[in-house]
């Protein structure tokens, strides 16, 4: 049987094969070899690749063509119903389940972002794909897989696909088959193998997995061309790859972000990103003013410097800074407390009659009690009388700093 036929001609040949599937295998292959040569000659009579309608106008429907072959070769006509003679309905049903339900659970797991959900849904998806695929192959009962095209749903699906294929120019269609198909096999294997091995490592492990996946994918593609029963397993996985491959390429090369197998962004663990907000902050909260108080709770005016003598400057937020028009908007100062815009009794701020205030709108808590120092015993022979030249020590008042977080 000639395997170089493409498009509507190949579909027509598959439908003729389904009509003649009751013939002995050896005789069937001989008949189909002659049919393939005849279809090649008929296709050459057209300027462009013939459509399905053109072939049926020229040769009749596949069933009519097959009946003519039976009559010419002396084979008895078929008397069984389509469902009895093909057994394709159960096989097609299991194939649809494998191609829809299985990929759905598998994609939910891949993009869930949670390892437990990925494991659970991934297992359910793979079990559905291979389980339903196995049942579909068993339903064929050793018959050619293309007998599903003889069922009502199979025939409608084939006609729909054929209508889409007929819209593609013949030269483009040929390039897609000869060039696009191997490229798809490689891309499918790279993403599948690399993504799987990325679960167990990174870098070289994922690269080796991608190369191994590409080799296995090409082998499976070639195997499927020889044994169509593999389609019950390959088609569902192709559905998953059809979604993952474009998404992975877009996110990796267009978006500039490398996404892991679970749909989560994978960042370089060796890089660090530390963000330090401008100005003064405490525990991640910005500070726009500082209110110093002495030990008695009285407000004092101070200048603040850091351990290197650098002024701790903050942006001034008084009326001139908020509503000024003379370049006073960006003034800095290390004198605290700073003057800020004071609202009126109702809590409103009038830009035309703006007033400044450096008073805190809170009462500081009392300073913690200090433990009195324990007197040191006087050694024997020493005098506790103070020296007449000694100066009395003056206690230095302490200062309590209270910060005002950014509002």
UniProtKB/TrEMBL annotation:
Keywords: Membrane, Transmembrane, Transmembrane helix. Residues 324-407 are annotated as: Disordered. The chain crosses the membrane at residues 91-111, 117-137, 196-220, 240-262. Residues 352-361 have a biased composition (Basic and acidic residues). Residues 363-380 have a biased composition (Pro residues). This is Proline-rich protein. It comes from Kribbella sancticallisti.
